[in-house]
Amino acid sequence: MCKYFFLFLLLCSCRSAKIPKSGVVVWESFFEGYKLKEFSQNFFSDSSVIIEGKQLFFFGSFGERPDTAVYETIKYSYFDLRTRRCQDYYELSDTAKPYCNYYVADTMTVGHFFCNDYKLAKRGIWSDPVLISDTTIEGKNYKRARSFFLLDTTNGDYADYYIDCSLNTGIFYLLNSVDDLCKGCTAVRADNISKPIIHTTRFWFDRTKLSKKEKLIFKQWEINAKNVNLPLLKYMDGITTCPHLTDGKDSSRLKKYMPELFKK
pLDDT exceeding 70 applies to what percent of the chain? Predict the structure, then answer.
């Protein structure tokens, strides 16, 4: 069973936001100073989610930098949060058929969200997050929390979390121990800082309603999940053995072309 950090609610007084039943959440990840960004859509309806899975690919010459570096969609994953079962599809369509079927333990995550077992402090990886000063970005106020990296303290690595008390998805979150600092609020952005590198992850609501086409897809994929005729794999087996759309593309040169991202 996944567990939460239970922290004193008096640390923060917040207004609980209304939780929508369906909609689209946009997820974005990028390194400061680089134009390349990962940008994906995540659809949700009640307790089911469709995640747009992307992967970084390099194309072109083997010069100082590749000719092109892009994130491309390789799959869509239908994840039932009640059963923890997931099916992968090549396209977002009600006529598409699943090609991979697997079970996701509650200590694992699909895409970038949904894992409740983020008690990293107990694993000795990150310190318990603590509230720091509020900040304002583009006229919007955020509460902030900070956590320090414990495995290597020589560089003083830390993560800052930005907490939005007007948003509560009920499903999506970056770190639930941060959310617990301020009941009813959601950490919507994380800046992982390992000087001079800053890696930002953030998400926001694009809309709180699904289109007719999207509703039809959810309806059909729920039926497919109940009748899927594929072996039920473990999550990691699904990642390594299912035929994702990666053939013929090179995603192995990130370390070669951006070595600064891998320096300790």
Answer: 70
